[in-house]
Amino acid sequence: MLLAHAGARVTVLERRDRPGGRTSAIEAETAEGRFRFDTGPTFFLYPRVLGEIFAAVGRDLMTEVPMTRLDPQYRLEFGSGGRLDATPNVAEMERQIAAINPADAGRFADFLAENRVKLAKFRPILENPFCSWKDLASPTLAKMLPLVRPWLSLDGELKRHFSDPRLRVAFSFQSKYLGMSPFRCPSLFSILSFLEYEHGVWHPTGGCAAVSERMAEIAVELGVDLQLDREVTGLQFKGKKPVAVETADGETHRCDALVINADFGRAMTRLVPDRLRKNWTDAKIGKKKFSCSTYMLYLGVEGLEDELPHHTIYIAEDYERNLREIETDRVLSDDPSVYVQNACVTDRSLAPPGCSTLYVLAPVTHESPHVDWDRDAPAFRERVLDQVESKFGVKNLRDRIRFEKQITPADWDGGYEIHKGATFNLAHNLTQMLHLRPRNRFEDLDGTYLVGGGTHPGSGLPVIYESARISSRLLAKDYGLPEVPTATLPSPASEEPVAEPAVVEPQTVEASV
């Protein structure tokens, strides 16, 4: 969208039959009717970034993709006891926090105030490229150190606010959006839960995939050549510069600039000869830390689950052990944490009349020698379904399933071309952030730019969209295109939520994606 608006001739080559990758839809026609699920992200957070991108090309995000702000945002069921219905209503959150642990009463507003300042000061860092170590010497970053406290983990940061471990989990489980444990994740990422309360958890009508679909339509309207079912199988180089892209059907697409949105580890090891990569050789990629993966069940269910919130998360009774089994031991948990999206309480259009879609996710290890998914998936499925029935109160679930699709880490790896099945890409530890992450103007190749979770700023939809804006600015500057505009919007928190959805001649520079 941004490059086409700036005047580039853009060709998008998409391996699958629909746009969006992990942010696309899974659809199934059954005897009951059509079920529709988001493949990956179901939480739409901080719409400000994408709203500014839409505004930069003359569109309004909330008009193009109507969204509903959720309240409660989600329910947390603690295996160690207790429940919290997360809400942006500060007084109500304070009441619930006091009910869980009176010693932590009154701390929520302080947490919000501190992180409001942290986000405001850190935004320029998230919105700008880190092309070398010299960018670390900026006065802005130096001023951030006392506020970010890089010597603390996310859990350590939250101990400054909450004494109860359940409440620390409530404001740190969002580190799983990055595929990391809050006991390892840098303290900076306390801004993730702040974003939810300050800027909202939103449901786009039709799911997050509807955002990708509308973006693809707008891109085509702007002149982009969007080609689906076009698997990229190779690149042609002149020195260290890609000059053409080869596809599985034998076609060759020449390019002046190349933007890579494929999974970083997979794209490098499959498409770029090791000899051309100095900083990101196969050996170096092999030593990097990758995120966890996810075990998925997409269930089309007879009956309505009106008592189950839109989003519910069960936190394992021994959460530290659960995370250790995922990240260190690399085995499957007996008491897995589980997330269930029951989107039909908000958006009836996703299922046939009288039916529901249940999106079930359990964080698990990425591909590991300790787990054979051909062998272990059936038993783990039963374990996860038991959790949904016992922890979420969904009765007789197995008897009511009318459609089912399963995705394991092996499927993410083989079917979706995600390196090691690590659905959140490279981990976000301090040695793999800023200039130490693969750079937006990719340092190992000429005329090549990265977007997505594998580059700066990192994983999660808002920052992935930000990576597109950063890389587009760099490409436009390098190729003499008009500057990619910046549109500043008011905070979504100050806007009224959208009504509930009805249950119902370019320049010659070419950028191949």
Our estimate of the beta-strand percent is: 15-25%
Shape designation: globular
Please outline the major beta sheet.
Answer: 7 strands, mixed
Helix content: 25-40%
| Radius of gyration of CA atoms, rounded to a whole number | 22 Å
Low-confidence stretches: 492-513
- Strand segment tally: 20
Given helix and strand content, the structural type is: alpha/beta
Helical region count? 17
Distance between the termini: 12 Å
Topology:
Elements: H1 2-6, E1 9-13, E2 25-29, E3 34-38, E4 44-45, H2 48-56, H3 61-64, E5 67-69, E6 74-78, E7 83-86, H4 90-100, H5 108-126, H6 139-148, H7 154-158, H8 165-170, H9 191-199, E8 201-204, H10 209-221, E9 225-227, E10 232-238, E11 241-247, E12 252-254, E13 257-260, H11 264-271, H12 282-287, E14 293-302, E15 311-315, H13 319-329, E16 338-341, E17 355-364, H14 373-392, H15 397-400, E18 401-407, H16 409-414, E19 448-450, H17 461-478, E20 510-512
Parallel strand pairs: 1-9, 1-20, 6-15, 13-19, 13-20
Antiparallel strand pairs: 2-3, 4-8, 5-8, 6-7, 10-11, 11-12, 14-17, 14-18, 15-16, 16-17
Walkthrough of the structure:
With 513 residues, this protein is α/β, with parallel strands linked by helices. The chain is built from 17 helices and 20 strands. The strands form 5 sheets. It has a 7-stranded mixed sheet with strand order 7-6-15-16-17-14-18. The radius of gyration is 22 Å and the shape is globular. The chain starts with a helix and ends with a strand.
